[in-house]
Amino acid sequence: MLKSVRVGSSLWWLFVVALGLGGSGTAQAKSPPTVTQLVTLDPNLSELPESITTDGDGRVFFTLVNGQIRELLPNHSTVTIATVPVPTGAFLTGIKVGPDGLIYTTTGGFTPSPAAAFVWRTDPATGVVEQFATLDPNGFPNDIAFEDNGGFFVTDPFLGRLYHLDAWGNVTLASADSRLNGDPASPAFPTHTFGADGIAWDHTGKFLYVGVIDFGRVLRFPYVCHHLGPAQLVAESPALKGIDGIALDRSGTVYAAINTQHRIATIDKRGSIATYATSPLFDSPSGLAFGTGHGDKKIAYITNFAINSVLAGTTPHPAILSVAVPVSGADLIE
C-alpha cells in the first residue's frame, strides 16, 4: 500500500511521483500507434507489394512482384507507372528514385536460369523501362540506396553481398562481409536462406545501414569519400529475425519491417530494440518509407507483402498501410 508521508513537499507530489506521472518520474505508457490500411490489393492477380519508396516531390511508389511499378496517389488510389519485363519465374523486388529522377528497381529469381538478377531503370514520365545492369544470376538483388553522385548500393540476400553500381551501370563488389550471409541452420523463410536485404542511409549520410534477415541483424558501414569502411554491428536479436525493409528517421532511429513477425520494430542509436507497431492488419510487412510531402513527413508507408500467408496457404492480405511516427524521416539523397 502506498503510504502518505510528508518530506518537505506536498502529499500530492508524492502520489504523482509514485504513480509515474511527474515530469522526472517514469513516463506514462504511450498508446500504440494506429495502423491504417490505405490500399487493398488482389493476391489473385499477383498484386503482392514488395518494396516502397518516396521521392523529393512527395510521390510514393511501390513494386508488385508481377512486375508493376505503381504510384500511390494522395486520394489513396493507385496508378501503374510501368511494367518491368520480369523474367519467367522471377520477381520485381526493390525500388528507389535516383538523383536523376528516374525509378530504379531490382529483379531476382530462385534459380539462375532464366537469368533474372537485373537492375532496371524506368522513366516515370513516359513509362519507358530499360535494363540498367546485370548481376550474378545465382543471386537475388533486393534493395537499393543511392549516393549523391548517381551511384548506388544493392543488397543481395542469396549471396550475402553488397554491390556498388556507378551512374553508368558498372558493377563492383562493395562488401562480402560474412555477417551479410543468411543462416542455413535457421532460415527465416522456408524457401531459401536470406542475408543482406533492407538498406538505408542515416540522416547524416555518414553511415549506410543494412539488415540481415535470417539472423535478425543490423550492420552499418561508415561512408567516407564515396567508400565504405568495415561493417559495425548495431543490433542482433531474435526480435529482429525476419527483418526486411528499413528506413531511418532524423534522430538516427532505425524503423524495420519485421516480415515474419508481422510488426514494425525500432532500433535506436544505442542498439536498443523495441516493438513500435503491431496490428491485425499486418501480413508480412516488407517495405517501409517515410513520407516527404506536405503533411506526411511523419508518416511511414508500409507494404504488406503477404508472402507468409501465400506460403502457408492461408488467405493473404496484400495492402499498402501507414502509421504515424514521432520524428520525420532522414533526408533523401537526390
Characterize the structure shown.
The chain is mostly beta strands and 334 residues long. It has 2 helices and 25 strands. The chain has one domain (33-324): TolB, C-terminal domain (Neuraminidase, 6 Propeller). Strands 14, 15, 16, 17 and 18 form a 5-stranded antiparallel β-sheet that branches. The chain has a 4-stranded antiparallel β-sheet with strand order 1-25-24-23, with no helix packed on it. A hairpin with an 8-residue loop joins strand 7 (103-109) and strand 8 (118-122). The model is unreliable at 1-29 (pLDDT under 50).
Gross morphology: globular
Structural class by helix and strand composition: mainly beta
Number of strands: 25
Unreliable residue stretches: 1-29
Count the helices. How many? Answer: 2
Q: Mean of residue pLDDT?
A: 91
Fold-level CATH name: Neuraminidase
Outline of this structure?
The protein is mainly beta and 334 residues long. It is built from two helices and 25 strands. The protein has helices at residues 11-18, 307-312; strands at 35-40, 49-54, 60-64, 68-72, 78-83, 90-97, 103-109, 118-122, 129-134, 144-146, 152-156, 161-165, 171-175, 196-201, 207-212, 217-224, 227-228, 232-236, 243-248, 254-258, 263-267, 273-278, 285-290, 299-304, 319-324.
Describe the protein's topology.
Layout lengths: L10 H8 L16 E6 L8 E6 L5 E5 L3 E5 L5 E6 L6 E8 L5 E7 L8 E5 L6 E6 L9 E3 L5 E5 L4 E5 L5 E5 L20 E6 L5 E6 L4 E8 L2 E2 L3 E5 L6 E6 L5 E5 L4 E5 L5 E6 L6 E6 L8 E6 L2 H6 L6 E6 L10
Antiparallel strand pairs: 1-25, 2-3, 3-4, 4-5, 6-7, 7-8, 8-9, 10-11, 11-12, 12-13, 14-15, 15-16, 16-17, 16-18, 19-20, 20-21, 21-22, 23-24, 24-25
